[in-house]
Amino acid sequence: MEIVVAKKDLLRLVARCQGVADRKSAMPALSNVLLTAEGNVLRVSATDMYLGLTGQTSAEVSTAGAIAVQARDLHDRIKAMPEGPISLASSGGGQAIIKAAGSPRRFTVPAIPGTDFPVLPQPDPAAPQLTLPVDLLSKLIARTHFSISTDETRAHVNSALFEWSGDRVRMVTTDGHRLSKMEATVEGVSATATMLIPLKAINELRRLADDARADGKEADALVSIRQSGPNAFFDIGGMRFSVKLVDAQFPPYQQVIPKTTDRTVRAPRKAFSDALDAVRIAASERTGGVKLTTTNGLLRITSESPESGYGFDEIPVDFAGNDLTIGFNAKYFLDVLGALEDEEVLLGVSGELDPAIIRPATESDKESFVAVVMPMRI
Length: 378
Hints:
The protein is of the alpha+beta class. Helix content is 17%, strand content 44%. It has 3 domains: 2-116, DNA Polymerase III, subunit A, domain 2 (DNA Polymerase III, Chain A, domain 2, Roll); 129-253, DNA Polymerase III, Chain A, domain 2 (Roll); 258-373, DNA Polymerase III, Chain A, domain 2 (Roll), CATH 3.10.150.10. It contains 6 helices and 26 strands. The strands form 3 sheets. A 13-stranded antiparallel β-sheet has the order 5-1-7-8-9-6-2-3-4-17-16-15-10. Strands 14-11-12-13-26-25-24-18-22 form a 9-stranded antiparallel β-sheet. Strands 21-20-19-23 form a 4-stranded antiparallel β-sheet. A hairpin with a 5-residue loop joins strand 8 (95-100) and strand 9 (106-113). The longest helix is centred in the middle third of the chain and has 16 residues, at 199-214. The mean pLDDT is 93.
């Protein structure tokens, strides 16, 4: 293989793909990125056998071919090159040679034949295709990703439920202590789909969505989604991302969300977040627990532990109902408040052993969000 390609284009592709390459795998090829040159196109691919990512850019291809190079090594060497076109060629001795035009700088790096690299899955051409704005996908993830369980032994909650029913799309996540659900209307589209997307894939999708939005074409950026066999495929920002879906049953989330609550507290989001963040300094490091008390138009926030002492703050709120004190993990509330942008939130509570719900104070018919947080004894 022998090509000439712009440094910035190759660096962008390798940087994106190296996040998927598995540096700790027992299969050495999985720590590599695959470079495939044909026609006037260079494709860069990476996989860990569960996730796959491919992108392409234009290149001057003198000799077509495919090689695989360790992702981190290739990225560092390309980054060290001067700006402008660089040439990349494979030698017969199992090496890739990287040179810069108009500069004596060059590198060699070990390479393996492209045939030693795993074949990435491809979608069935007949698979239904769903399309939604990248901005909406980004918002679905931003408002729910924090409540995905990090316990990889519990695959059914170490993932996000992505559902499409009619013209409504939703994402739901839970770790057993809290739950987040956001849904929105996609005008002009009616479809049915259910996918359980693992946490690692959600994190990668979030990066890809952020990259696509940062390209400056946010208003026009779309993501195409296809489900084919055990895999889902996302075409986003010029990249194709594939993920092996989780084969498990997501918890019945509808049963977890309270239909009503006895008391509703309308609180300023930023002030609530700041007070929680301050008071949790004195909370137990093990539980992160704080007490919320509604009284006389105030929401009082307290924490106490033998190791850290006592913390107190209060903010003015509007609420209906009798006074109540409930204990919660402060981080769970802070994650939700940090994901929202509304000036005010509604906190729904019933009894000291009942879950609390958090919603934006103002919602449209097109979008809705709800978070559920289980109480704790303090």
